[in-house]
Amino acid sequence: MASLVEKQLLKSLFSFVLLVLLFSDTVISSRKTLDQRKPCKHFSFYFHDILYDGDNVANATSAAIVSPPGLGNFKFGKFVIFDGPITMDKNYLSEPVARAQGFYFYDMKTDFNSWFSYTLVFNSTEHKGTLNIMGADLMMEPTRDLSVVGGTGDFFMARGIATFVTDLFQGAKYFRVKMDIKLYECY
Questions:
Q1: Is 82 in contact with 118 (CB distance < 8 Å)?
Q2: Tens digit of each residue's pLDDT (9 = 90 or more) over 94-130
Q3: Could you give the CA distance from residue 2 to residue 22 in angstroms, rounded to a whole number?
Q4: Can you say whether residue 77 is alpha, beta or left, with left for phi > 0 and alpha for psi between -120 and 50 degrees?
Q5: pLDDT level of residue 81 (50, 70, 90 thresholds)
Q6: Which DSSP string do the residues of 165-187 spell out, in sequence order?
Q7: Cβ atoms of 135 and 115 closer than 8 Å
Q8: What SS3 class is residue 83?
Q9: Residue 85 burial by Cβ neighbours in a 10 Å radius (0-12, 13-18, 19+)
Q10: Could you tell me the end-to-end alpha-carbon distance of the chain, in angstroms, rounded to an integer?
Q11: What φ, ψ does residue 144 adopt, rounded to 5°?
């Protein structure tokens, strides 16, 4: 009787070890290696922002929902929501390839600095899905890197870097930022 129990235990143990070996080989062989020098996808877009000023309802793509007065010369505390066009070129009137929907707020008292969180919503013949981008925009720097933290559709679970370069700044009314997006994790 003991030999039957031993055989059954040995058979179960052997099956368990075989199953562990099978799954560990599958996990190891399916790991992706990230080559940080070569992105799996690369895009360059222009983000256009026209701040609502009370007279430009038809053209405004953003609005300040909180703007506390008297907190310094660097817009500290100002919170802006936006839904702006993303174009392939510098022309605001070009056909949008996506929409940037999200918010930014000014978070520094001693210099211009903002923090962005937004989604690029693609709905074109070339791309469908979203890319989620967030991070600090150190506005006085010539280039700034924000994190691509995820996506859906064609960009499912994408990760990478969105490099900002201010292309045009017209006071508090309009700015245009070139976004150079490099995705290093694509599925």
A1: yes
A2: 999 999 999 999 888 888 889 999 999 998 888 999 9
A3: 30
A4: left
A5: very high
A6: EEEEEETTTEEEEEEEEEEEE--
A7: yes
A8: strand
A9: buried
A10: 54
A11: -135, 140
CA atoms of 185 and 131, how far apart (whole Å): 12
Distance CA 49, CA 69 (A): 22
> Six-digit token pair at 19?
């199953």
pLDDT of residue 165: 95
d(CA 117, CA 105): 9
Token pair for 101: 């929907």
- Residue 54 pLDDT class (50, 70, 90 cuts): confident
CB 134 within 8 A of CB 103: no
The answer to whether 97 touches 128, Cβ cutoff 8 Å, is: no
Block residue for tokens 């055989």: 7
Residue type, 106: Y
Q: Tokens 């022309």 sit at which residue?
A: 91
Residue 140 neighbours by CB under 8 Å, 6+ apart: 111, 112, 113
Nearest 5°: the CA angle 43, 45, 49 is: 155
pLDDT over 60 (residue 150): yes
Does pLDDT of 68 surpass 90? Answer: no
CA dist 91 and 110 (Å) reads 33
